[in-house]
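During the no-cost extension, the postdoctoral fellow (Dr. R.K.) reprocessed legacy sequence entries with the updated structure-token encoder. One reprocessed record is reproduced below for audit purposes.
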Amino acid sequence: MITKKQLKIKRGFDVLVVLLFLPIVLVPIVILVCIATIDTKRYGIYSQYRIGQHGKPFKIYKIRTLKDGDHQLGHLNDYATAFGKFLRASKLNELPQLYNVLIGDMSLVGPRPDLEGFADQLKGDDRKILIVKPGITGPATLKYKNEERVLERQNNPNQYNRTIIWVDKVKINKKYVENYSFYLDLTLILKSTLNK
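Re-encoded structure tokens follow.
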């Protein structure tokens, strides 16, 4: 099980990495936000409340990829612009989450932060997932990197997400917390980089 000392080391590593890389990616982020603003005809930064560490909500930031519309789970790409689809496929829309990491809402590695109705509803032993900050990447994120495409093929994406994918993610994320090591985080970061 991850310890308080490991959580502090994890946080220190997060801050160090973001401070090293933010000057490099800041200009590309600004350029992508400007393009997204023109492309979607709305401000290029998108924010949404997600459930974070200890079940507390926080505001996550992404580069906007979707046009206006009733965005249904499993059909998000139907509302994405051509540029938005590129951002989503390359995960470049996640770059503003480096700010979330810097201010302490997120970590580089951890369970992906979900909308209300998932992590905040965890019971019993499953709540150990909430010990860690949600991450930009993580073991469940890597396994379900094509989650949107999987959901698009389902007759009932919401039900499939709740009964199949979410249940599996909980198991994966519990294992991550129970078997945490700094080396594991480094391995997951490397795998995420190579899987782009």
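Residues 4-191 form one domain. The longest helix spans residues 4-40. The remaining legacy entries will be reprocessed before the final report is submitted.
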